[in-house]
Specification:
Largest interface: A-B, 96 and 95 residues
Radius of gyration of chain A: 21 Å
Structural class of chain A: alpha/beta
Distance between the termini of chain A: 36 Å
Strand order of the largest sheet of chain A: 6-7-5-4-8-9-11
Largest sheet of chain A: 7 strands, mixed
Order of helices and strands of chain A: HEHHEEHEHEEEHEHEEEHE
Oligomer: homodimer
Chain lengths: ~240, ~240
Amino acid sequence: MAPERQRSGVIPEPTVARLPIYQRIAAELARTGQATVSSEQLAALAGVTAAKVRKDLAHLGKLGTRGTGYDAAQLVRGISEVMGADQDWPVVIVGIGNLGRALINARGFLARGYRLVGLVDTDTRILGTEISGHTVVRFDELPARLSEKVAIGIIATPASAAQDAADQLVALGAGSLLNFAPTVLMTPPHIRVRYVDLSIELQVLSHFALTDHSDAGAMSSVGIQPIAAPWAPAAGEHGARS
Amino acid sequence: MAPERQRSGVIPEPTVARLPIYQRIAAELARTGQATVSSEQLAALAGVTAAKVRKDLAHLGKLGTRGTGYDAAQLVRGISEVMGADQDWPVVIVGIGNLGRALINARGFLARGYRLVGLVDTDTRILGTEISGHTVVRFDELPARLSEKVAIGIIATPASAAQDAADQLVALGAGSLLNFAPTVLMTPPHIRVRYVDLSIELQVLSHFALTDHSDAGAMSSVGIQPIAAPWAPAAGEHGARS
DNA sequence: CAATGTGAACAGTTTCACAGCT
DNA sequence: AGCTGTGAAACTGTTCACATTG
């Protein structure tokens, strides 16, 4: 029945990082009553080219209809499926400072499939505190409170504590780590790690501010900046590898 | 005198995103008394290949010495220079929730060159609050408090407020935006935008957890995982484009 | 006939291998 | 002898152009 899903090969990482963006747009359009989306429209709203959208979506199998476009609702489901948002991913957050709290509270961050199962910190001032239905504990108290393996560990500690956090998370079964601390982690080879280093983001911006030096729009790389619009979507990619 | 700096062409974005990592490592080594670093050592600590390190650093001009390696202190300075960390970048943060506060407090985030000049929010509960020597104000009060153009605007608001924040920041002269809200921003073509979407990071991890499915270390892409170590650095890239 | 899906050309990065300094 | 700097090859991802299909 289902119109041929889950195409064969692996999906390239840049594509994987763009799929959630298409999904968000498709969901919003579906919500406002639009049943179908063209690659052109999706491209305009996502800040990429239409060809890229089609290549990206082709990885999901054929869920478009020629002459018509993609079914918005079907797109949302199809992308959920490949992203694994359907499954259940027990998440532990280490480091309950401002960043940790921001992650806990951010709407849409721990939604759909990503289930918070533990909060870890060492600061005695917040140990024992209850946040979002979870008590903040030290690492050695965590196993007693877990009834399952951790799938994803989020490291929101200072750099000095990050490696230890990674070790402990791996010991609890985490196969994936999301590291916000500015350090390169040493991990066994089968562990997937993604880095989000906020200070690097700033530095990359200032570097290009320097080299673009007022030569408006010269930003060689992408930047589709579609046809006739006073303002065009600013295209962006989300990187990192394991 | 200075040994030929600032090579001609543009530096590829993936390289730009790695330079701060090398810098951090070089700084740490210099601090512990090591005067010179080889590409091999830098590679092992950064989780990349030695060839990549050499190609990357070659963009800075020739600051290595054959047979010896790179001078650690010189590396730190050279990278500061190309990243623009020497210059002065007035930064405004919009959205003083947990994330905004995390950015303000994170050691190393607003250091060296990135100078906080304004905090904006609309929540009456925190308006007027003083944080890090800056009073949180509404956007319309900000111009009166600024004595210069904004260089970089950081958007740490909910998605619903992000586009407005972007518009206002651009009006204040910001040429670069760092957007943490899960939305594609519409901006004039000469504005550089980088996206950090936390929920996408989680989804990318779960996608690959799905497809790698226990086939340990098969992660095709990079993953140098050097020679003989029980644990190898987990390589990572930091992406996004304007 | 509009809009997808895709082979082929193109572009950007990474890896390799080694020539060239120190 | 050791280690950088760099062309050339390999690879990965993007853009183009169009045949194909509903």
